[in-house]
Amino acid sequence: MVDQLPLLNGSSIPAIGLGLYKVPPAEAARVIDDGLAAGYRLIDGAAMYDNEAEMGAAVRASGMRDALQVVTKFWGDPEQSYDAVLRDFAASEARMGLDVVDGYMIHWPRAPRDTYVETWRAFQALRDEGRVRWIAVANFGADELQRLFDETGEWPVINQVESHPWLPQHDLRAFHAKHGIVTQAWSPLGRGRLLDHPVLVAIADEVGATPAQVVLRWHLQLGGAAAPKSMHASRLAENIAPIAPLPDEAMERIAALESGERTGTAPEDRP
Fold first, then answer.
1. Does 82 qualify as catalytic in the annotation?
2. Among 75, 84, 87, 113, fewest CB within 10 Å belongs to which?
3. Which of 49, 82, 104, 116 is catalytic?
4. Predicted confidence band at 2 (pLDDT cuts at 50, 70, 90)?
5. Nearest to 98 by CA among 71, 128, 126
6. E strands within the chain?
7. Local structure of 135: helix, strand or coil
8. Measured between alpha carbons, how far is residue 31 from residues 45, 61, 64 in Å?
9. What is the pLDDT of residues 153-163, one digit of tens each?
């Protein structure tokens, strides 16, 4: 059973979700079916991933809709505005064919445009209309989160950010924890680049797990969530399989890997 993390709106999410980034549309249904069989109950999609239609069809065909949380994201390019949110969400609704979307995220703040607050107000409207159950963001910094709250009176329930042992984001995690925001990691395994690191391989051998399981357990012990992606049924099952908590000494060795290295785009580089 996957741990559940409480959200500010009184609901909760599974700590480990199934990421669909770079899953080709033709493979999405199979990957989702394999993920559901392995025990995933949160599916992390986005308009930009170009597989919303396949995600929705797989969820409808599964017969498990009530047990699942389906998430998608507003891309915000070429336009990020109140009206653009309403248009894009209507298109996402049509593609997915679901009565309600569980979670909707602003994919990037695109801070130079200075429109993320009005974008957030559109998210609030969609939630208040009952078309979305909870609203969240991705790739926001602490200052941007604070501004959302100051100007709208509401924190996002989740901030999904790049995070892995090279880039743990401790300061941002602390800000989230102070305000009840869940930290959800994208690229939680460093896009696979971390998995042959000697420190992680050694810890995995010591605890009888795989390096991927060690890194995901590290995320859980930091109090956050993660949405790893794989197109292989065996790795999907591996990623969600529980392992015992890592000893403090192992957590300290992983902490020493912090370098600030990113494997994806930095928020300030996404205009």
1. no
2. 87
3. 49
4. confident
5. 71
6. 4-6, 12-14, 18-19, 42-44, 69-74, 101-106, 132-138, 158-162, 182-186, 225-226
7. strand
8. 12, 13, 15
9. 999 999 999 99
Whether pTM exceeds 0.85 = yes
Chain centroid, CA 25 distance in Å: 19
Q: What is the pLDDT of residues 21-80, one digit of tens each?
A: 999 999 999 999 999 999 999 999 999 999 999 999 999 999 999 999 999 999 999 999
In sequence order, which residues have a C-beta less than 8 Å from that of residue 265 and are 6 or more positions away?
none
Locate tokens 């797989």: which residue? Answer: 58
- Token output for 215: 């890194």
Looking at residue 4, its pLDDT comes to 97
Do 166 and 259 meet the contact criterion of CB atoms below 8 Å apart?
A: yes
Q: How far apart are CA 33 and CA 101, in angstroms?
A: 19
Polymer length of the chain = 271
Q: Between 248-255 and 211-221, two packed helices, what is the crossing angle to 10 degrees?
A: 100
- For domain 4-193+218-243, the CATH superfamily is NADP-dependent oxidoreductase domain (3.20.20.100)
